[in-house]
Design goal:
single chain, 166 residues, mainly alpha, 9 helices, VTT_dom
């Protein structure tokens, strides 16, 4: 619960900018606060402020998409060497990365959508999508849908808790 309180304090101090930065970093698959804490905290705060739900969701989707583009570019330009390095250094990530490759093999562009709704795979799919050089248009389309659904679910949960907790 301490992590949740920290997020609430930072969001009160820095507002929507904090939401953007933390979601961007999370979609880069960097260790830190997970979406399960960040998004509901944002929802609770917007329920008690003049920030609209749609605005906060839009900012979170934009941040998620930009973070995804960053990982996609790393995969696109560095690709297999970076994946091999991750396999060597972080052996426990291999199954998640392999699943992401499998989703693309099985579902094509739709694999991006499916992955966006699965913890861990939802951020790794960007690196994998770049590595296999998916077309950016399909990657973007399915990412927007998946990111929107994922973020909306968590922000809405916090928003409803914020309303009911008044």
């Amino acid at each position: 619960m301490e992590s949740f309180d920290v997020v609430i304090r930072y969001m009160q101090d820095y507002g929507i900018i904090f939401l953007f930065v933390i979601v961007y970093l999370e979609y880069l698959n960097l260790p830190g606060l997970p979406a399960g804490i960040i998004m509901p905290a944002a929802g609770m705060l917007i329920a008690r402020s003049d920030i609209s739900f749609i605005y906060a969701l839009s900012i979170s989707v934009l941040a998620g998409l930009l973070g995804s583009y960053t990982l996609y570019a790393i995969g696109y330009f560095i690709g297999t060497p970076i994946v091999d390095k991750i396999y060597e250094k972080y052996e426990k990530m291999r199954p998640s990365i392999d699943k992401s490759f499998g989703y693309i093999d099985k579902y094509g562009n739709g694999g991006v959508f499916v992955s966006r709704l699965i913890p861990v795979a939802r951020t790794l799919i960007s690196l994998v999508g770049g590595t296999v050089r998916m077309k950016l248009r399909g990657f973007t389309f399915y990412s927007i849908i998946g990111i929107t659904l994922w973020n909306a679910g968590f922000i809405l949960a916090g928003y409803l808790l914020g309303i009911w907790g008044r």
